[in-house]
Amino acid sequence: MLREEELKTFVDGTTRYFEVAAQQPATIGSPYLLEGEPAMHDYTGMINITGKREGVVYFTAPRAMLTVLLMKMQESDFSHESMRDLVGEVANTISGNARRDFGHDFVISVPSVFAGEKPQISQPAGARAFVIPIHWRSHSAKLVVSLT
Amino acid sequence: METAKDTSARRPVKLLIVDDSNIVRRRIERSQQFDDLEVVGTAANGIEALELARRTDPDLVTMDLTMPQMDGIECITQLVKLKPEVRILVISALSDKATAVEAMERGANGFLDKPFTDRQLNEAIAELMY
Amino acid sequence: MLLSGVDRNRRLLTAAAGFLLAAVMGLVLIIGFRLATQIRGNVGTLQRASELETYPSVVSQQLTALRERLDTLEYTGHVHAELAESVRGFDRDFAALEREHDLDPAAMHAATALWHSYTPVLTPVLAYHGEPYSDTATNSSLSRSGRVFYAHVRRAELFAQANAAALHRQLAAVSASLQARTAAAASRLRWLLSGGVLAVLLLGLAAAYLQLARARGERAAREAQEQTRDILATVREGFFLLDADYRIGAVWSKALTHMFGRENFAGLSFEELLRDKVPPETLATATKFIKLLWGERAHENLMKSINPLGQLEVSMDNGRGGKETRYLQFDFHRVTGPKGVKHVLCAVGDITSSVLLSRELHEAQENAHSQLDMMVSMLHSDPLQIGTFLDSASAGLKHINAILKEPARSHAEFSKKLAGLARELHAMKGEASALNLMSIAQRVHHLEDMVAQLKGRSELTGNDFLPMVLKLDELLAHLRGVREMTLRLTALRDNAPSPEATLSTPALRIGSSGPEELAATLHSLARKLAQDHGKEFSLTVNGLADCPRSYLSTVKDCLIQMLRNSAVHGIETNEVRRAGSKAAGGQVRVDFRRAGAGYELLFEDDGAGLSPETLKEAAVRKNIITAEQAAQLDNRAALALIFKPGFSTRSEVSMDAGRGTGMDVVAKAVYGLGGKIGVSTNPGRFTRFKIALPAASETAVA
Lengths: 148, 130, 702
Known about the structure:
The complex is a heterotrimer.
Chain A: H1 4-22, E1 27-28, E2 32-33, E3 43-51, E4 55-61, H2 63-72, H3 80-102, E5 106-108, E6 112-115, E7 129-136, E8 139-147
Antiparallel strand pairs in A: 1-7, 2-7, 3-4, 3-5, 3-6, 4-8, 7-8
Chain B: E1 13-18, H1 22-31, E2 37-43, H2 46-56, E3 60-63, H3 72-82, E4 87-92, H4 97-106, E5 110-113, H5 118-129
Parallel strand pairs in B: 1-2, 1-3, 3-4, 4-5
Chain C: H1 2-71, H2 77-99, H3 105-127, E1 133-135, E2 140-142, H4 144-234, E3 238-242, E4 248-252, H5 255-260, H6 270-274, H7 280-294, E5 312-317, E6 323-337, E7 340-350, H8 352-379, H9 383-405, H10 411-434, H11 438-455, H12 466-494, H13 499-504, H14 515-533, E8 537-542, H15 549-570, H16 574-579, E9 586-595, E10 598-605, H17 612-621, H18 627-632, H19 635-640, H20 663-672, E11 676-682, E12 686-693
Helix pairs in contact in C: 1-2, 1-4, 2-3, 3-4, 8-12, 9-10, 9-12, 10-11, 10-15, 11-12, 14-15, 15-20
């Protein structure tokens, strides 16, 4: 079962990314349990966790948010590829934080990135998914964590 | 009892038991296993305890901390003034350590946490008196 | 201790050897110097003595030469002068010799006597002045005085010839004695020097040995020191000494660095060490605790249990740049010397694994207990009731999740969620405890606690809700477990052979979730509440059979809530009742009846009633209304305060009431059905709730 400090690590990894990349921290909304199909935004960066624990963590964000984020990062390329790279980066940061905090218990995959198409999510059996809304400026994204 | 060695040579140790609970008082009285230990009195609060201490001149006092009328801390303070030589073993349920430390500051010699086993009680008495 | 004693002795010995060496060398020098001086003097004297030895024969020869010259009438002047010179020299040297001590006295005496005997014969010779010859033109001859002079010379010559040998012998004896004496001194000097060299050699050897031993001792000490350093660098515990001012000594074990994230601890005060890790009160208690060790009364072994730092939670680097929670245990020990307590040794151990293990063990036990509780309570409950509860609990949790899901970014938005969450949770807890499903009730209670804590916060963010959503997940998992267990139990019962067995205990009866079950639930809850709160009361339930099924769920919720309020707030303890001249054992009545087109539910207890003033005070205290508003409320309006969200008259929180929701849930449910609720009371006598419900449309099943 997911522990509080684990959830915190994933959340902090995400909000910190905004703080470091765009000098403006993201805040989180009220977390809830996912019911039914996950709601995906335009771009999704996902890591799979295997080993002693199994699960999936993904960050999904709308194009508008990513565009502003890229602007804040002084980027001028707002192409599809840039967006994909960006959500991949966020997923990477989350994975780095998790490795730092939990080390050997977690085997973390290379982030996979989805845009538009419905991603293949192998949610672990018996684990519910936690949805944490990520607010940044006027935009909202989601961090979804599901871990045995 | 192996801790009570060479009992013949010594005058008996006089024990005063102070606790507001009947059950605990009887428990202490029953559990001590020293041949040369004589229970000279039991008191249910601090005032009784001081009164009995004056009359019976105990060597060792087991002391509860939370009691009606006069609590253990106050009782220890006065008891040490009255009889500086007396050994005091606090036997109390440890809720906050600050109070326990205060009891020791006032002059208690040791602290035994409730609930305690017979063995713990006897070891504590042995530590203080033998 | 031992080492330093040996060391001190060795030092003393070395010092003694050095002192002796200096003394011996000084003595040898002084004596040697004196001996050398003596020898040098002796050598001078010896020279003089051996010179003296030649004088007798010289004098004799000079006298002979003088006489022969007189015989041959040759010039005598220079020979006479030489003689005078010799005699004077002899006199001078002899006098010098006489001044010497320790000469062979007999020889010296004889020599003196002999030389003195020369004087009478030599004096006339030496005293002669004048011309010994009288010259004529052709020849020369002795003059008159010359003839006298000649006689004197001749006499002296004869005397000298006769005595020269004797005098020489005596002088040789003196010289020999002097030589012997010098030889003796030289030999003494030789001995002295050999002895001195030997002594110096021995002392040097001794000093060298001592030096060697000391070096060996120092090496041993160095090795011991090195080993101590190795131990301190390797042990996993943090060790250091505290002095009477609570300052850390010069030596500590390396493990401290990791535990406290600093390199240097020398002179650091205990307070500085722990200031960021320990709440100030704990630190103050810990300081007092350590102080006890400096006193004489406290027995170290009998104060372990009161150690305020027996288990300290700290945040530490996990070595990968992150933080992790560890548990440290501080042990304190007296270090005594001959003059009492010297230091307090502090040993810090990392007991994280044992803490976690015991916690897991505890949790497992707790789980086992609550699972057992669950089994027992389920065996005593109606599976259908449990099923109904589980359905409504699932719906409640869905609602809770929906509340959480509502977007929120500001404090106000987060804050708004709390009231809704509290209401849902409270209702769920009420039902769970009514069914004696304590494992569920406890979990819901825990969630309620979290909500209640957040209510006090001045600033709320999404982070504050993270623990709650995890607990919610846990509760859902638990409910799923309970549901599975219920299904299995139901299956078991359906296969049970004897119907009497299941009917014999009313709680095991299988029936529809109808009015009868509700009455049974209320009775069971009443018994439990009476027991839990030390109250005594009887419950009378009438007319619930008339309750339409569509209202049953709401009526149940309302009745459970009101019954709990009565048991906790309304009904007094028997002592209080007696004091108020009331019959022991309270009465709670529930009446359900048709009224006009609709229904009426009456709930009444003969308890303490409601005091408008107390209600107003409580409402002001809880910031539901202001004091000014309170002053303007009449009694009716004051009574209506109990339907306000967040109202509670009890300050402490128990599982059954006093959480600040309750009657607002009831009121909300009643309004939801299009009904009305009213309250009347007589302080000290009764509280009565009257709920009016409209005619039910059977299709409106929730």
